[in-house]
Amino acid sequence: MSDAVLSSIHGDVALIQINRPPVNAIDRAVRAGLKQAFERLRADAEVGAIVVAGSGKTFVAGADIKEFESGIEEPSYHELFRLVEDMPVPVIAAVHGVALGAGTELALACHYRIATPNASFGLPELSLGLIPGAGGTQRLPRVIPFAAAADMILSGRPLQATQARALGLVDAIIVGDPIDAARRYGEELIASGKGVRKTRERPIVEVEGFDDTLAVIRVQASKTMPKLPAASKLIDALAAAVEKPFDEGLRVESEISGRLQSSDESRALRHLFFAEREVAKIAGLPASVLPRRIEQIGIVGAGTMGSGIAMAFANADIPVAILDSSEDALARARVTVRKNYERSVARGSLTAEQLEKRLQLIKLDFRPEALSEADLVIEAVFENLDVKKDVFAKLDKIAKRGAILATNTSTLDINVIAEQTNRPQDVIGLHFFSPANVMRLLEIVQAKATNDDVIVTALNVAKRIRKIGVVAQVCRGFIGNRMMEPYAREAEHCVLEGATPQEVDAALEEFGMAMGILAVFDMAGVDIGHLTRVAHPIGFQKDPTFYRPSALLTEQGWLGQKSGRGYYRYDGGKRVVDDEVVALLHAEGRRMGVPQRKPSAEEIRERCLFALVNEGARVLEERIASRSGDIDVVYTSGYGFPRYRGGPMFWADTVGLKRIYDTINKFRRDLDPRYWEPASLLEKLAMSGGSFTHWQSDPIIKQ
């Protein structure tokens, strides 16, 4: 028998253990081992019950996702689970840790399910653009109420053991060693004469009002997941569980699952699944490098960003000291943090006791010595190089030896900031995204002198506070903001040509962006980007049209949501078209001699998105990002790029790099050629029929 599956017999109870730690994913070897074990036990008349369990810390954390790319080899999940269900003696799933995806589907194929108090069950396939394809949509509604089954699969939220027990998914909560408890449970089944209980032969649970329930579910899915075909197909599979016999419903599920596996949306989501796990793997960083001990955090700056960063650490039970020279700023921060936590309590995601505990972890102080014991100090002051240089010169004198000094800058040269200290090896960029206590992305920026253990520590810290850390090298704007510059530039120029802000944003939102870029500027403050460009001029300064709309709105004092109008007017917080702003921006375009036209939605999307991709190619050429997947993680985690498109570089591969290259050359002829020079990497890949993903993994192409 394969080492992937272990089998033993204890009295009249057999034990089958999946042995693929740490997650016990069901791959081909596991399926083959399970099939062999069950077939052997089926012929053993001495066996009265069978326990299926996982080795190590968990039951089964899912399927081997790589098989969705290569194809699932025999034995199939359906063959295996039918074999389990058809065993002549009771089969008991003993679940500890997690049962996710194929793990829950395996448990459903068993006749009984028992679980430890900390166990959980989940079917998160929709997050990969898939549906449970091994009987999950057909068996689950036969075990728990139909509405609960639909919610569990559509939401992807796991059920804790106690919830699963209340719904009927779990037959018993066990204490102590799960395998010992499962053996005893098997012996009790044998003694009581309880036989097999095939899930597929059970009726749908609480199917009354099915039509109404299904209608509500479809409406909700169309609102919350309008661009994800798998959601509506999942509902079709669930409906088949009610409307058709089990085997026919299973065929519907299998057909849908097969089609979705090859869809662009599922390929994109699977790409991100792996990309998010690759970002922590840094080439050339020895595995022997260990992180520094981080137990106390210091933050300089009590503004919105500093407060949000403090909450991110307090949420992970890490003490934080916020330093600010303004007592008013400290008082505002105290109020802001409490209000944010109170909203969480009102939503039910936090208890009152947890609120008080987290508030106690955050200390606010105006005395510099409050940072003297911090293991990591994060500067979160105004985006001004001179101010940040001054802060780091002072931190060098205050912070203890061995402390890591981090800047939250989003654009500035961290090498220059590090030079203000006598320990540049301890300086790193930690670019949080607002609101810092919510956004998943953390850009980790490696300066030229940054020690390896500082990078490892930053990646470890990101994991502790439940963020995705992506390592970037130093350049203006790093990965995300550098690529955003040409994207937003084209959006603003389209307005000068005659498009309205609403038309620009609608074109981008139709593509799937969480918010159009001009609405983003209004939300962040139109003046923020403008003042940064004034303080730190970048290329094409001889072009007076460069970001002129934002400059003009700032001159007018129309700064976005905070002033009640910007690219839009805000009435009661609602975004509405501002005809006066539109007229002003179009008049400015005419005054500056910009040819007046009305770019189509398709042109707007191509200009913005192809400019984004082209700059991404330069980021890869210059090794600012290690992998195209890193860029995709940055944009889907921090910039609202639709996950179902896989990120800008993966999406570019699906569009075709030759098409993007040809269109950029067309824009170079028809528009301002200064902005439309194809990146050399884009040109090379387009001419060779390559892709960013291929380039990422092919060292020959990367030469």
- Strand pairing plus helix content: what structural class? alpha/beta
Low-confidence stretches: 697-703
Shape: globular
Count of structural domains: 3
Percent strand equals: 5-15%
CATH hierarchy, class of the largest domain? Alpha Beta
> Going across the major beta sheet, what is the strand order?
12-11-10-13-14-15-16-17
Total number of strands: 19
- The radius of gyration is 28 Å
What is the helix fraction of residues, given as a range?
40-55%
Write the layout of secondary structure elements.
Blueprint: E1 5-10, E2 13-18, H1 28-42, E3 49-54, H2 67-70, H3 77-85, E4 91-95, E5 98-100, H4 102-109, E6 112-115, E7 120-122, H5 136-139, H6 146-155, E8 159-160, H7 161-167, E9 172-173, H8 178-192, H9 210-224, H10 229-243, H11 246-261, H12 264-278, E10 297-300, H13 304-314, E11 320-323, H14 327-347, H15 352-361, E12 362-365, E13 376-379, H16 385-398, E14 404-407, H17 414-418, E15 427-432, E16 441-446, H18 452-464, E17 468-473, H19 480-497, H20 501-511, H21 517-524, H22 526-535, H23 548-556, E18 569-571, E19 574-576, H24 579-591, H25 601-621, H26 628-638, H27 648-655, H28 657-670, H29 680-688, H30 692-697
